[in-house]
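fyi for ur records
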Amino acid sequence: MAEARQPHRILGIDPGLNITGFGIIESDGHNSRYVHSGSIRVRGSAKETGMAQRLGKIFRELTDVISEYRPMEAAVEEVFVSRNMSSALKLGHARGAAISAAVQLQVPVSEYSARSVKQAIVGNGAASKEQIQHMVLRLLALRGKLQEDEADALAVSLCHAHTSMQSGTYRRSLSGSHP
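which gave:
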């Protein structure tokens, strides 16, 4: 008889300087359950709100989310570098703030390419945003519509749960180590 696995709480992060999405699931490696999701929005233009203030807000708000929901692991989407190197560098700053928030609270972080996330969730590395939204809603048995950044963050957390289980690196939580 297969051993029952304890649910594993995973925080997925879709970083951005204007909007950073986050999504938290619990997964036993086979089944996943929605816990919470949201987005961190930075108001004002980049000129009105400096880079340091934007990064500080991302860091502080993710720190609050991590402190409240206590994920055991985090997963973040990697930066895709195409033609606009400046945008990729700025996005890298947002990723750094998000990763730093998790690391400060001793939450291990894994990284996944956008293509890997799409492949894990939809079965197609070139899937559209609409296809990702549809599959996230279906996989987590949610109704309605999620904000795009929340759906992307939940997709990252689902990708991590699936990838960890497939690779055999899924770790069972220690008794009493997590609420």
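Residues 8-167 form a domain with the Nucleotidyltransferase; domain 5 fold (CATH 3.30.420.10). thats all i got for now
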